[in-house]
Amino acid sequence: MRARPQVCEALLFALALQTGVCYGIKWLALSKTPAALALNQTQHCKQLEGLVSAQVQLCRSNLELMHTIVHAAREVMKACRRAFADMRWNCSSIELAPNYLLDLERGTRESAFVYALSAATISHAIARACTSGDLPGCSCGPVPGEPPGPGNRWGGCADNLSYGLLMGAKFSDAPMKVKKTGSQANKLMRLHNSEVGRQALRASLEVKCKCHGVSGSCSIRTCWKGLPELRDVAADLKTRYLSATKVVHRPMGTRKHLVPKDLDIRPVKDSELVYLQSSPDFCMKNEKVGSHGTQDRQCNKTSNGSDSCDLMCCGRGYNPYTDRVVERCHCKYHWCCYVTCRRCERTVERYVCK
Ligand SMILES: *[C@@H]1O[C@H](CO)[C@@H](O)[C@H](O)[C@H]1NC(C)=O
Ligand SMILES: *[C@@H]1O[C@H](CO)[C@@H](O)[C@H](O)[C@H]1NC(C)=O
Ligand SMILES: *[C@@H]1O[C@H](CO)[C@@H](O)[C@H](O)[C@H]1NC(C)=O
Ligand SMILES: *[C@@H]1O[C@H](CO)[C@@H](O)[C@H](O)[C@H]1NC(C)=O
Ligand SMILES: *[C@@H]1O[C@H](CO)[C@@H](O)[C@H](O)[C@H]1NC(C)=O
After folding, report:
1. Which residues line ligand 4 (CB under 6 A)?
2. pLDDT digit string (tens) for 30-78?
3. How many folded domains does the chain comprise?
4. Atom 3 (ligand 3): residue with closest C-alpha?
5. Is residue 244 assigned to a domain?
6. Strand partners of residue 248
7. Domain that holds residue 328
């Protein structure tokens, strides 16, 4: 009996891959939108890759948002690769959008991170675009209700996070709201993790201040609520990735929910990333499970983290090679006001996994 759900799952996968019904994060393919596509006419929406019909509809009715959403898709890829540069799974497969491999098609921990990051990024991008005045439909965020602290006053332009969250969720959750496609458990997982991403973004909102006053005395500070850089949000989500919870789809009360697989009976928390399928260790190449392996990956001989040669190479050992780096050196300051430098070359020893 135990094997059956897995067979079903596998069949669902095969079906999903063939018919492309698991749309999920296929909208990240927007990152490849050619710059020549002006995106200023509603008929351009049909030419965009990776969108479900509800997203095409949103594109038509919110055309002014699309440049921001295309930008967000590019940012997701950058932030994911940066956050996982020191890991065996380094997010390089996200570039395959919209035709992902199993590492991102299945309900893995890695896909949990990417869904959360995608949801956070699109809302981050829209909120930031509001602030910079790029969107005709929205303005600065609200003035906070609480007092700004002694010597401070609220001012500036706050990031309009509520608008970012609203429009971001509409767009990025649309594929999971399509009826009768994919498995229910996968949809629940994707929606949950997307919400975790938005929750992390909400939690990241911070008070930022700027000094004023006579010759920089900072007697008055203007403050507003702003979002941190996306890389900080990605780092927060990576921490949640590392402590993600494995869940199963199980009846609880009258409906089926995602509940932690381990014995402690509790609902999943709004702050935790969840996954349904364990990932391989990503040591060896195995396309069947979406693993690229770590052969030829660079490792760090002096680190004791996940990028250490020991962990990265899974104990297989590593090969040294020398690399030449060119740097600016012997820099001199000339009065007034420029700097001259020389170019120096030095060799460094680097290591790649066997
Ligand atoms: C859309 O943008 C293109 C290129 O920038 C421009 O030539 C065209 O006139 C624009 N169309 C509309 C309807 O604004
Ligand atoms: C942005 O924040 C303001 C509050 O200052 C609010 O009135 C407005 O509805 C928000 N959304 C948009 C789209 O401007
Ligand atoms: C990420 O991993 C892939 C597969 O192992 C590898 O080909 C690629 O070079 C890696 N990228 C970086 C930036 O290390
Ligand atoms: C290797 O790791 C050490 C310790 O974490 C760090 O100081 C160093 O910059 C790393 N080297 C490279 C090439 O990343
Ligand atoms: C390496 O490990 C030691 C102790 O095990 C720890 O104190 C230190 O912070 C670690 N360094 C890095 C770069 O992770």
Report:
1. 300, 302-303
2. 999 998 888 888 899 998 999 999 999 999 999 999 999 999 999 999 9
3. 2
4. 92
5. yes
6. 259
7. 301-353
